[in-house]
Amino acid sequence: MIKVELDKIIFYPPSKGYAVILKELGGIRQLPIIVGVFEAQSIALAIEQVKMPRPMTHDLFVRILTRMGLDIQEVEINDLIEGTFYAQIILKNKSDNSIAKIDSRPSDAIALALRMDADILVTEAVMDEAGQYLKITDMGQQKSLDEDPFKDELMDRLVELKTKLQIAIDEENYELAAKLRDQIISLEKDMKNN
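Now predict its structure.
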C-alpha cells in the first residue's frame, strides 16, 4: 500500500465537479479522483477545520463512530473498475482492538480520514493504473522525471481520458464511455510501443 496525502482540490469543468489530487508521500506520483461538488466541499471543510453550527453528514458520522468507541485506523483506495474508484474504511474498536472493513466511495473515505486524522492509502495496482508522475522544478523550468516529454504528454493524456471515462460512467453516458475506453486502449498500446 502507498501512503498518500491530499495535495489539492481543483475544479474540473467538464463534470462541473472537482478533482481531488492525492500525492504519494516520499514518492513521485499523484492520483487524481473526480468527486462531486458536495463531497469536495466536505473535504475542503475538513482541510480548513471549519466548524459548522450544525453537523454535516461526515461530521455526524465521526460523532457516531466516536460515541460507539470506534476509530478510523486508515482508509484504502483499493480498486479501479471501468473507471470507477473503490475504497474501504478500516475501523478499529477501541475496547477489544477488533477490526472491521466498510466499503465506501473514495470521496467519503477521504472526508472521514481527514476529520479523524487517519492515513490514506492507495494500492499499487490502482496507482499504476490511474496515477501520474509528478513534475519537478529544476532551475525554474518544468521537467519530467522520466526525461521524455513525448511520453509525459501521453501520460497526461491517458490520465485525462481515464478521468473523463470515470465521469461518463458516473453520469451513465455509456456510449461516450465506450469511445473513451477505446481511446485509452489505443493510447496504452502506443505508450508500450514507444
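Residues 133-193 form one domain.
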